[in-house]
Specification:
single chain, two-stranded antiparallel sheet, 59% helix, globular
Length: 275
């Protein structure tokens, strides 16, 4: 029975699930007393949705490539866990942890490698975070973010394809909720937040202060940040979103952001400028 439930979940249409979740949370943001107030929501939504339109076709193609590659690696028993012959449930749980572990390091790399940052900064450029901000990612970043990370984890650790499907299923609601412009209680950070990335923790990652931008990298398990010294905290009401170099209204448009990775834009850090 549990196996049938997992298979049913993995057979869900991820695009439909994402649209449904976004619709629910975006509606809540309009009805409730949100954490952050901002104007120009229609333009903000329009710009972010354009990214999703472009990403839709790329996601379908790239996801198929990743699934085929992961299946091939699994069939040929490539990776460390194949040597241990773990029970299915152990392999599934290990896969969830290790896919997120790999994503943590790739995310951290995206902040430290200037060329990769050029694409990742598109996501961080948003000065008004809400549930639509989940869509704001440069189309070419998906090749690095959701491609190399998953393939490296599968090849090195020998992860089960079903673990990747389950991990993707967890990421969809996690990304929408983490970006949602809603108030989340701080007791959540002090309990669940010992292991799981809470919305307040992820919003700190979107603070324009570089000290906080380069922290809280984990998508699902904040445990990685706690273990590797990249966890930081500040009160949610003190967070200031965006990047200084993208503040101008004309730099918040879809067309500017799409072109921005190929433009020389200085990024100020604590010790030097990265362009």
């Amino acid at each position: 029975m549990p196996m049938q439930i997992i298979e049913a979940l993995l057979n869900l249409n991820y695009t439909v699930a994402l649209i449904a979740l976004f619709t629910v949370f975006f509606t809540l943001e309009q009805l409730l007393n949100t954490q952050f107030r901002f104007t120009g929501r229609v333009n903000h939504l329009g710009n972010n949705l354009l990214f999703q339109v472009v990403l839709f076709g790329i996601n379908i193609f790239w996801a198929s490539v990743i699934v085929l590659a992961v299946d091939w690696l699994h069939e040929h028993k490539i990776g460390l866990l194949h040597q241990l012959e773990l029970p299915f449930w152990a392999a599934l749980i290990s896969g969830l942890l290790l896919y997120d572990f790999s994503a943590y390091w790739f995310h951290r790399m995206a902040h430290r490698v200037p060329f990769v940052w050029r694409f990742h900064r598109v996501h961080h450029s948003d000065t008004s975070l809400d549930s639509s901000s989940n869509f704001r990612s440069h189309p070419l970043e998906i090749l690095f973010w959701f491609g190399a990370s998953d393939l490296v984890a599968t090849a090195v650790f020998g992860l089960h394809p079903m673990a990747l499907g389950l991990y993707a299923l967890i990421l969809i609601p996690a990304f929408v909720i983490e970006h949602a412009n809603l108030r989340f209680p701080t007791w959540l950070d002090k309990t669940v937040g010992l292991v799981i990335t809470t919305p307040n923790f992820h919003k700190i990652h979107h603070d324009r202060d570089q000290h906080y931008t380069d922290s809280n990298y984990a998508d699902v398990f904040i445990l990685w940040d706690r273990l590797f010294g990249t966890f930081k905290y500040k009160p949610p009401d003190q967070i200031n979103f965006g990047l200084d170099e993208f503040d101008a209204p004309e730099k918040q448009t879809f067309w500017y952001l799409i072109r921005s990775p190929f433009m020389k834009i200085e990024r100020k850090t604590s010790d030097k400028l990265i362009s």
